[in-house]
């Protein structure tokens, strides 16, 4: 929950801002620990329907974090003090959540917190991967480089993920159109014609009887079927929010024909890119594997990376640790082994990241090239079958008459 406050800091200067907390007591305690003397604090008002921020529109998108990271890299490179950087950016950014986040981070820094600790309190905006990278930059004194790395990494990830997501938009649109056409045909077009066919007394073909039966089912029990579909959808949505549901979804993503290949390439690209950026930033390999498992966004690969981290901690090589679970392909394992033996692991991971990004692009192009004509032909054949099942008996009646 977000609370707006006005206070006086330890130097006697008035200030205002916002803080996220579970309740008002926690918010007050957090502000008092910073040395603030509160004058007012209240939950953020929702406002009217037209003015309040809708949750899904207020979410911080990847491209917002990319732009923020580039701005941070530029300002740190110019040796602007950290507190001034976050105050400056907070005053310029219009995005409400990001603005309040930067104000809160600036308050934390002013109270003596490190940048990494301050941003770690906003996991909805900054992932654990981002926090660990910033912590590494603080320890090495290279925050300008780290924010530059993060901006480039997030931009690459955003582009690859967007391309994969956009590849599925058209097929989904066609499927929704297909379903809509079928519903209209079965509930509006065919019922108007079925009476003529029944009254003719002519023996109907089996496929025409099947279509008429399906139409009767849709018109007689349509609302019941719709409610059942909605209830089933809600049940599936809640199931996929559970741990077992997330495991099932993760397994489906990598096993579905055609689409599974795309997802596998996407996850491998993300793994190689994550490990490359984190090792380049001098983060230990065990920590890098653990964090990569958290941000890869698939529980099958997460478990494989977590197991690999444990094996490396036990003295195993990285390549051998990755080969324990069969989800990592032999190509990546062999390349990692070459990188370990030659001392060029960072460069090898960079090459693997580029390779799998190209594979994602190729998989997307191939998938779109296959699915588009298949869906169009299927839609045409289905509509044609429905029309033929109804119109052919009508022509026969007209011809016989």
Please name the defining characteristics of this protein.
401 residues, mainly alpha, Receptor-associated Protein, 2 domains, three-stranded antiparallel sheet, 16 helices, extended
Question: Care to describe what's here?
Answer:
By secondary structure, the protein is mostly helical. It folds into two domains: 1-46; 164-401, Type II secretion system (T2SS), domain F (Receptor-associated Protein, Up-down Bundle), CATH 1.20.81.30. Helix content is 75%, strand content 5%. It is built from 16 helices and three strands. Strands 2-1-3 form a three-stranded antiparallel β-sheet. Strand 1 (2-8) and strand 2 (14-20) form a beta hairpin. Helix 11 (259-280) runs antiparallel to helix 16. The chain is extended, with a radius of gyration of 29 Å.
Topology, element by element:
Layout: E1 2-8, E2 14-20, H1 24-33, E3 37-43, H2 55-58, H3 62-77, H4 82-92, H5 96-110, H6 115-119, H7 128-140, H8 143-199, H9 206-239, H10 243-255, H11 259-280, H12 285-295, H13 299-313, H14 318-322, H15 330-342, H16 345-400
Antiparallel strand pairs: 1-2, 1-3
Helix pairs in contact: 3-4, 3-8, 4-5, 7-8, 8-9, 8-11, 8-16, 9-16, 10-11, 11-12, 11-16, 12-13, 15-16
């Amino acid at each position: 929950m977000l609370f707006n406050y006005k206070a006086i800091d330890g130097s006697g200067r008035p200030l205002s801002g916002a803080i996220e907390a579970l309740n008002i007591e926690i918010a007050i305690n957090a502000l008092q620990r910073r040395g603030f003397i509160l004058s007012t604090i209240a939950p953020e008002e929702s406002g009217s329907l037209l003015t309040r921020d809708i949750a899904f529109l207020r979410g911080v998108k990847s491209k917002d974090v990319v732009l923020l990271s580039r701005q941070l890299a530029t300002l740190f490179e110019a040796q602007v003090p950290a507190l001034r950087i976050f105050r400056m950016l907070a005053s310029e950014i219009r995005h409400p959540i990001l603005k309040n986040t930067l104000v809160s981070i600036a308050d934390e820094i002013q109270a003596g917190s490190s940048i990494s600790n301050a941003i770690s309190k906003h996991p909805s905006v900054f992932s654990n991967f981002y926090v660990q990278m910033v912590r590494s930059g603080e320890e090495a004194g290279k925050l300008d480089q780290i924010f530059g790395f993060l901006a480039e990494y997030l931009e690459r990830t955003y582009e690859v993920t967007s391309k994969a997501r956009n590849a599925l938009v058209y097929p989904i649109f066609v499927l929704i159109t297909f379903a809509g056409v079928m519903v209209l045909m079965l509930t509006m077009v065919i019922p108007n014609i079925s009476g003529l066919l029944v009254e003719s007394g002519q023996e109907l073909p089996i496929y025409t009887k099947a279509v008429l039966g399906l139409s009767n089912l849709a018109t007689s029990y349509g609302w019941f079927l719709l409610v059942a579909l909605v209830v089933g959808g809600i049940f599936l949505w809640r199931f996929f929010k559970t741990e077992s549901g997330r495991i099932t979804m993760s397994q489906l993503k990598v096993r579905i024909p055609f689409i599974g290949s795309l997802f596998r390439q996407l996850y491998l690209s993300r793994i190689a890119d994550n490990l490359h950026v984190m090792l380049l930033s001098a983060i230990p390999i065990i920590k890098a594997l653990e964090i990569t498992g958290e941000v890869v966004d698939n529980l099958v690969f997460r478990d494989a990376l977590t197991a690999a981290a444990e094996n490396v901690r036990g003295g195993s090589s990285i390549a051998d640790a990755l080969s324990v679970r069969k989800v990592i392909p032999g190509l990546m394992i062999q390349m990692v082994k070459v990188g370990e033996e030659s001392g060029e692991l960072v460069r090898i991971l960079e090459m693997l990241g580029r390779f799998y990004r190209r594979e994602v692009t190729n998989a997307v192009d191939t998938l779109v090239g296959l699915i588009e004509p298949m869906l169009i032909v299927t839609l045409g054949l289905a509509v044609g079958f429905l029309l033929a099942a109804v119109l052919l008996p009508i022509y026969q009646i007209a011809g016989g008459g």
